[in-house]
Each structure stands twice: as C-alpha cells, then as structure tokens.
Amino acid sequence: MSKVFFTPADVEITDPTRWYQPDKSLVSRLERLIEESSILDNIDKGDIVAVKTHFGDRGTTKMLRSLFVRKVVEKIKEKKAKIYVTETTGLGLTRDRTTAIGRIEIAEENGFTSQTVGAPIIIADGLRGFDAIRVRQNARHLKEVHVARAIAETDFVVAVTHFKLHMRGGVGGSLKNIGVGCVTKTTKFDIHLPSPPEIDKEKCTECDRCVEICPFDAIENYSIDLDKCLKCLGCAEVCEERAIKLGPWLDGDDIAERIVEAAKAVIDTVGKGNFAFLNFAIDITPHCDCHPYSAPPQVSDIGVYASNDIVSIDTASLDAYKKESLTSKALIKEKFWSWTSPERLVEYAEELGLGSRRYELEEIP
C-alpha cells in the first residue's frame, strides 16, 4: 500500500471582512502539499530534473495554469537541482504542435514561458519529434519504445499533470502524461494505431506530396519502406486522396495497455525511484488538453494529489472523480466515454509492477 497525499480545492470563505486569506489559494496549498508529502526527497543537489506538463494547444483554455508549474519549480530549486520544464511534440508534421518551435510558440501563447514557470522550456524529443533512445522490452504490445532523449538523460522527473478525461485513453492522468508525453512520434503512433501506414495503390494519384514531406525518404515507387519509416503521420496529413491506409484508431483496453507499456519503458529508463507525481483534479474536462478547445468541466474542482506511486495517484484521482456529481453542463452524462477503459490503465500498470492500486490517503489542509 502506498501513500497518496491530497489537498482540497474548496475555499469556504463567506465573511466579506475576512476576504484576504492568501493561504487559502490552491497555490499555497500546493506548496504545503509538496513539503508534507516529501515527494521530492530523492532529488539530490546538481540533479537534472524535468518538470513534465502539458502546455495545451492553440485555443485550449482549461489546461493547467503556469503558476502551479512555477510553484513546483520553486520547490525543486530548494534542492539546488538543475531544472527544465518540458513537453514533447505531437503526431504529424503539418500542425504547429508537431515541432519544437510550434510547441514553444503555443506554450508562450498559453502563458508558459521561462519567466512565468521559472525555468527553461525544452522540448524533450527534439526539433521535429524523433530524438529518442530506443528501449526494447518483453511486452504484450510494444516491443520497442522510443523514449524522448532528454527524458532518458534526466536524473529525476516530476509529472505535473492536469487530470481530465480522454476520448481514447479514458483519462489523462500521470500514466498518460508519462506514457504518451515522454515518448516520440514513433511510439505515439504505436500507442494509437495497431499497424504501420500503407499506401493504397488504387487511390494513389502519384502526386508526390507524401514523397516530399517524408523526412526519412521512406517512400519509394509509392510504397512505404517500413525499415525507414518512423510512423510520423506526415504522409497521411498531406494526402488529399486519403490513399494512406491507417487504423483502426485504438481505444478501450488496447490503447490503455499500450499507454502503460510505454510508461513502463520510460520509468525503467529513468529509474522507478526517480519520479514524483502531482495530479491536479481541477477543470476536469471531457477532452484532452491536446484539443484546440475546452468544454465545461464534468464535475466541480476536487483538489491536488501527490505521490511517488504512479498507480496509486491515478487510482486515487479516479476514485475521487467517480464519487463526484456531474455538473449541469457536463458534455457526457456518464462519468467516462463509453468506449474507453480508464480502469484498465491502473489495473495493467499494477500487473506490470509500476505501483499499487491500494493506497492510504492523507489530507493536507
């Protein structure tokens, strides 16, 4: 059984003469949560520490706020560590979020700069999202995982996660933040799709758009050389005839297990004892922060969870969310998208030895 620490989002101030109470801020409570949970105790002086979060996309309005990230950075600085705030590129080659340049531009538009978070921002998988350490493992689905190189070279990772729903993976908690957010395009593809892309010769007009965009010259005679292809999805993005065969896109247990297997490769690479996790169960939207919009939250804000156990913290966040009543403006009138398997995430993660679903919850007011 692991310890999970929690601070609530409730603010019970009703007296207008006592309105100024900065200690009631969730930022102040976050500071106390980090201190009393001791989740950063394994950080040593001089360690390179990655603060892994999600900057949202252009148009996202309910991603995690930068002042929470800044507070986490401030607490790590007390350890005399070397810190950077990080994210990885998205699948594809044409949208802004698919390159490091675009990721940083979007981050700045959404309020994440080196000044606002108090540390440099580095995109962990390189300029175009292929900079990786290849990790081989004996897993059910993912035999090889491309871990973002900067993450692989980091001494300690602090996952600062906006806990919300996800239309494929069920929920976006710490497991998804690590499993999808710390790998390159190649493994993102393998998580979402069961087989590599293929060109449909009957639909192909030989326009050469796919040939021109491919960064690895993997398309020859209008066939994809799978020994060269790193599965970035660039060819599918530019094909107007939809001649690139993909899919079906995965959901349910299939994608849940792939997310966990990718997370395991990341954790094995950095070291299981070199992680701390914070789940912000606030603004729990029905969509991931990679969507260029944000729907109203499904439930009222719950609070922030802290743990060194990735399975326990996601289980505690799930349990709390399931107990809440849906708001009147909830997009879906059930707790999860019906085709997803959020429980399988934590079940499979426990099966693979990443942590325990049994936890002891301690509230920090």
TrEMBL record:
<dbReference type="InterPro" id="IPR050157">
    <property type="entry name" value="PSI_iron-sulfur_center"/>
</dbReference>
<dbReference type="GO" id="GO:0046872">
    <property type="term" value="F:metal ion binding"/>
</dbReference>
<keyword id="KW-0408">Iron</keyword>
<keyword id="KW-0411">Iron-sulfur</keyword>
<dbReference type="InterPro" id="IPR007160">
    <property type="entry name" value="DUF362"/>
</dbReference>
<dbReference type="InterPro" id="IPR017900">
    <property type="entry name" value="4Fe4S_Fe_S_CS"/>
</dbReference>
<protein>
    <submittedName>
        <fullName>Ferredoxin</fullName>
    </submittedName>
</protein>
<feature type="domain" description="4Fe-4S ferredoxin-type">
    <location>
        <begin position="225"/>
        <end position="249"/>
    </location>
</feature>
<keyword id="KW-0479">Metal-binding</keyword>
<dbReference type="InterPro" id="IPR017896">
    <property type="entry name" value="4Fe4S_Fe-S-bd"/>
</dbReference>
<dbReference type="GO" id="GO:0016491">
    <property type="term" value="F:oxidoreductase activity"/>
</dbReference>
<keyword id="KW-0004">4Fe-4S</keyword>
<feature type="domain" description="4Fe-4S ferredoxin-type">
    <location>
        <begin position="195"/>
        <end position="224"/>
    </location>
</feature>
<dbReference type="GO" id="GO:0051539">
    <property type="term" value="F:4 iron, 4 sulfur cluster binding"/>
</dbReference>
<dbReference type="Pfam" id="PF04015">
    <property type="entry name" value="DUF362"/>
</dbReference>
